[in-house]
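Subject: for your reference before the review

Hello V.,

The reviewers asked for a structural picture of the protein, and I figured it would be easier to keep everything in one thread rather than splitting it across files. Below is the amino acid sequence we used in the manuscript, unchanged from the supplementary table.
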Amino acid sequence: MAAKPGVLASLKRLRPGWLAALVLLAGGAAVIVVNWPGHWSYDSVIQLDQGRSGLYNAWHPPVMAWLLGLADRLLRGGALFTVLEAALVFGALAALVALAGRRAWAAPLAALAALATPQLAIYPAIVWKDVLFAGAALGAFACLAWAGRLWSARPWRWALVLKASALLALAALARQNGLVLIPAAGVTLAWVGLRAGGAGRRWRALGPGAVLVIAASLIAVAGASALKLHSDGEHERRRQWEELRIYEMVAARSMKPGLTFPILAAQAPAMNDFMTTQGPRLLKFQRIDPLVQNPFVVAHQDHDRPAVLAQWRAVFAADPMLYLRVRARLFAWVFLTPDLKSCVPLSIGVDGPPALMAHLGLQERYTDTDDAVFDYAQAFFGTPIYRHAAWAGLAAVLLVALLVRRRPEDIAVAGLLASALGFAATFFVISIACDYRYLYVLDLSALAGALYGVATLGTRQGPKP
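And here is what came back from the structure prediction:
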């Protein structure tokens, strides 16, 4: 029986892939330099303040504030956070293209082309939870792909599984609906194990998938519990759900003008008057803010919560199709972005509440370089590069192709694409705004899948389980 190739022997066959990986890592370094010290929006500045004070609220993921606080302690101003984001994104992409075959000399060229997209040239330097989430998600599935490649080397396999667990936990902490990635990754790894472990080891191959789900869940729960110790004590999550219900009912009233709210009329008449008169005028399907940031809603939402919940249940229990119509209209804005410029395509420079900026020692910034960066991104606004539907279509095509070939590494990348599509689908239920960044992970995953596909083009179908 021939001896199994060692880890080093496997790595030596990847020269074009390593060159492509170096191109991506060098590009990542250039992105950090050009965009230094990163691009900070209002939310980013608020999260930095929370990180510095050590007191977090749930309007934003506490893990963002915590990481920004760590970055701020290492280098005043938190700019090192952009290094973390870029390291996650470019590290994951480099790991995927490093899986290229011996003759995949198109991979370095594909890497250069990918670096020209705004998704890589700009976004890894924007301080957003969505960028952190996307980088962590890509990194986790890149680990699974390498676990498939090195399956017979048990120490490497388990090290990669544990690293993937930590990254999945980080993704879940960065975005609540990112929890869908954990079971998806578990199924993916189990399938990878079945393809890589051999016909006689089916049950043993399933173990790493179970370990991944358990470890990632435990890390996420422990992290959330630890961060909750630094909570400001406000009930932000409860208010967010009530705002969503108000938004959906006003949208329903807008789409069905004869709709009435008898429970609100009886129990919260002032809220009923607002939602039937002012509400439809304030409603924007592309964004919840004009409606729920109205002073009336802010002042009354806590007191009227039971009536709002009861009315929401009654409205959509009586007409489930109305709920689906409302959600479809809202989801169309986030997925199709019919008016990209009204959907916050990106954030450039440094901007935040003036008093808070002064307190943090930050200066408002929009330099000539920032202006050039924005102009560069804007040149892509009317193209498929900024269309989630186009990236979703690419992801679906790549998913089918990878499932046909079914090498262990292919299954891992297919799992990434399926998870990104599944994550995007969760916004059918929870979308409240059409910001481009919400589905950044979908576009980035499709781009990663395309790079991997080019790098492994011509590779033979995987072994039968």
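For the response letter, the relevant points are probably these. Residues 51 and 66 are 5 Å apart (CA to CA). Residues 7-231+366-455 form one domain.

Happy to draft the paragraph if you're swamped.

O.
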